[in-house]
Amino acid sequence: MKRWLSIGGLILVTVIWGGGFVASDIALESMEPFQIMTVRFLLASVLMGLMSIPSLRRIEKGELKAGILMGIALFAAFSLQIIGLQYTTPSKNAFLTALNVVIVPFIAFLVLKKKIGWKGILGAVMSVAGVALLSLNGDLTLSLGDGLTLLCAVGFAFQIFFTSEFVKKYRATVLNFVQMATAFVLSLASLFVFGETRFAVTARGWLGVIYLGVVSTTICYLLQTACQKYVDETKAAIILSMESVFGTLFSILLLHEVITPRMVAGCAVILAAVIISNLSETEQTEKQKEKA
């Protein structure tokens, strides 16, 4: 029963995250990228801090370092994602971001020397083909927005990799708070560096950024952590990859984005690549369990 409730919780997370692409697009109508990120991570830091007061009374040095590293990766990923969204569509932004799942095994290979199965390699090849279909222009060039979003996927891949390694050693509540606080400090610094200090936010803009900070970040990260106690991490990753599907659906329904057959084909190939890559990870995990 707990497992099925957790699966339902993870699906809810993907729905909320899918809505986050639309919320970001709405917030960008009256806010600059680092204004959005500063408010988003300020809200998340305060809320997570209030929920984690007992755990924060004594933070270990290792937890602090790990949380900061996760926060740097999270900041890099979100900043590239939201800046890229200024130059591409929410649906492309969503599907290109989903490629982080394909990239994670390659980071594990480079850092931990973990082997990559043939399905992981096939997933990588398919993801390249999907990106070509979805994003390449007629002259085979990549737009600025799509290029930045691809880099954002690398940032999220590192954040996922760091999280999976550090959560085994340290308290999740502390890691989450330090991560969000680090992202807030970096966002605030960037706001001043890039001169985005003048706020002229509309009601729609505030609604968008509050959704991002309270619902899409705080609630979702807490819900994801709770649900993954009862769902295999690889199956969870497959479920969470559906974020890109919901991102596209909300973009069509709420923003009336026009989807072409080529975009549909590219999205389908990328989604298949994400699932195949995760199936590869499942096989490796099962083999390791059998050896143990």
List the helices and strands and how they pair.
Blueprint: H1 2-27, H2 33-51, H3 53-56, H4 61-84, H5 90-97, H6 100-112, H7 118-135, H8 144-166, H9 172-193, H10 203-227, H11 233-240, H12 243-255, H13 261-291
Helix pairs in contact: 1-5, 1-10, 1-12, 2-9, 2-10, 4-8, 4-9, 5-8, 5-12, 6-8, 7-13, 11-13
Describe the overall structure.
The protein is mostly helical. It contains 13 helices and no strands. It has helices spanning 2-27, 33-51, 53-56, 61-84, 90-97, 100-112, 118-135, 144-166, 172-193, 203-227, 233-240, 243-255, 261-291. The protein starts with a helix and ends with a helix.
Shape: globular
Q: Strand percentage, roughly?
A: under 5%
Helix content: over 70%
* H/E element order: HHHHHHHHHHHHH
Number of β-strand runs: 0
Mean pLDDT: 85
Number of helices: 13
Low-pLDDT regions: none
- Largest sheet at a glance? none
Terminal Cα span: 28 Å
Name the structural class.
Answer: mainly alpha
Provide the gyration radius in Å. 19 Å
What structural keywords apply?
292 residues, 0% strand, mainly alpha
Summarize the structure.
With 292 residues, this protein is mainly alpha-helical. Helices cover 80% and strands 0% of the residues. The longest helix is centred in the last third of the chain and has 31 residues, at 261-291.
